[in-house]
Specification:
This is Ferric uptake regulation protein. 46% of the residues lie in helices and 17% in strands. The chain has five helices and five strands, in the order H-H-H-H-E-E-E-E-H-E. A three-stranded mixed sheet has the order 4-3-5, with no helix packed on it. Strand 3 (105-110) and strand 4 (118-124) form a beta hairpin. The longest helix is centred in the first third of the chain and has 22 residues, at 3-24. It starts with a helix and ends with a strand. The mean pLDDT is 88.
Length: 157
Amino acid sequence: MDTLQKEKNITLIKDVLRNYLLEKGFRNTPERYTILEEIYNMEHHFNVDDLYLLMMQKKYHVSKATIYNTIEIFLDAGLIRKHQFGEKTLTSSSYEKSYFDKQHDHLVIYKKDSDKEIEEIIEFCDPRIQGIKEAIEGAFGVKIDSHSLYFYGTKND
C-alpha cells in the first residue's frame, strides 16, 4: 500500500473512531487516536503486551490499563477483531486491524515439541468457505454477518 493511501486510511479510521466516541458519549482523547494509528501501522497480529512495549519504545506515555480499555472500545467500534489462537502467553488474546480487511481465516502453526508456542500464523481466504456459508444460511434461514475459522497444527518434518 502506498503512503498516500495509508494516510487516507488512517484519516478514515480516525473519523470512524471520532463518530463512535461521540455516539457513545465517550471522551475524545488523543491517546486513543495514537493507539489506533499504531495498530493500523502494524502488519501483523498483536497482543496488549506487544502494543504496550511498542508504545513505550516510542516514548508514548500510556498505561497498560488505558490500552486494555481502548482495545475494548476499538472492538465495539469494529476497528479491530479479537482472536483466541490457543497460545500460552500472559495475555492470551491476539488482535488485528479489521476495518479495511475482508473476512479471512487462520492457520495457526505451533512450534514442534512446544506447549502451544506459535511459530507462524497464516491468513488465507478460500472461496469454498463462502459457499459453505451460503449453504448454512439457506439451510437455517439466517444471514451470517461474520465467521471465524481456525486450523491448528505443526509443520511436517
